[in-house]
Amino acid sequence: MIDETLVGRERAALMANYRRQPVAFVRGEGAHLYDADGRRYVDCMAGISMINAGHCHPEVVEAIRAQAGRLLNVSNLYYTEPMVALAEWIRDNSMEGRVFFCNSGAEANEAALKLVRKHAGPERPEVVALVDGFHGRTYGALSLTGQPDKQAAFAPLVPGVRHVERDDLQGLADAVSDRTAAIFLEVVQGEVGVHPVPHEMLRLARDLADRHGALLVLDEVQTGLSRTGPLWGYQDVGVEPDVMCLAKSLGGGVPIGAITARPPYDAVFAPGDHGSTFAGGPLACAAALASCRVLADPALQSGVRAKGARLLAGLRGLVEAGLATEARGRGLMCAIDLPRPRAAEAVAGLLEAGYLANNTSARTLRFLPPLVVEETDLDGLVAALGEVLAHT
């Protein structure tokens, strides 16, 4: 499955941050990946929702190829057409506000944290986020992330962050006050195993932010760009944020992140307040604009809803068969819980069967296939998972 020489080289050259699966990929197309021996795998992770448009989508590839032959990067000291065009697209297709570009989801949340802190001033030092939320691994983003096991080794973190359980309406109401600068939420908590935040929690957050003069920040790094069906996850809830964080599938596989804020909050930053050397570069923006246009297709979005419902129904069938305890999801963002802590073994079994998935805990499997995945591949995933669970 993998050249052990490559494994040895990786161990000698790279820090041990990741638990890699025993496979090396050399090519991708649509929802499929291929190893050096030509074996095909169904990608049910999409780079953790990074490849929503599919691997090597022709329009994204052509945009990269054309831009790479003209200009790779030039810094933010100058104007470029791809940067402005992508910002216009995000503005016109979301909250009608201006955009700040960065390079990742963690950077987007860091930028949003700085924006809300500057807007609030020192008399509003607190930020509210959710237990089990995930906003990144840099210091500000990690401080927002409500997972003590990820934070413990790096304490002390940024002060003033209060965490509330995702379904605790009273807890949220108690946590937000006139000292609150912002409320940071995900529409669906993906990193802990696809747990949708209740709609009433999101609506209450909007109401509390308005009541106390705080800003509502929605982290759509994983849910944005049609992953749950609509272009943005918040559109299913009817709650519009003041600031939205984007990354992952924004670039079609190329690193890029962004925040957008509705007026007047898009005027908080002044020259020198924040920046990034590589952010908004022409290559990344050209790739992102092509990816966005693909993912905004209403036919694709309709397909996400239909295929997501099909996948979730299949996973629930495994629950009914006694092979799992719960299945949940929204669009093509699904997870299943197992009765025993054997999720890592199930991931290995799926890999052997030709399907890529990951476990977010010892009992939970997560599935985030490219949005162009075929229904036959989803049916194959469910069948393979059933076989694996029956023998795990």
How would you portray this structure in words?
The chain has 2 domains: 59-295, Type I PLP-dependent aspartate aminotransferase-like (Major domain) (Aspartate Aminotransferase, domain 2), CATH 3.40.640.10; 298-364 and 374-392, Aspartate Aminotransferase, domain 1, CATH 3.90.1150. It has 13 helices and 17 strands. The chain is globular. It has a 7-stranded mixed beta sheet with strand order 4-12-11-10-7-5-6, sandwiched between helices. Strands 1-2-3-15 form a 4-stranded mixed beta sheet. Strand 1 and strand 2 (32-35) form a beta hairpin. The longest helix has 23 residues, at 298-320. The chain has 392 residues and is of the alpha/beta class. 38% of the residues lie in helices and 17% in strands. Helix 4 (81-92) packs parallel to helix 10 (282-295).
Q: Termini distance?
A: 21 Å
- What composes the largest sheet? 7 strands, mixed
3D shape: globular
CATH topology label of the largest domain: Aspartate Aminotransferase, domain 2
Proportion of helical residues: 25-40%
Number of strands: 17
Low confidence ranges: none
The radius of gyration computed from the alpha-carbon positions, rounded to a whole number of angstroms, is: 21 Å
From the structure above, extract its key features:
392 residues, Aspartate Aminotransferase, domain 2, 2 domains, 4-stranded mixed sheet, 17 strands
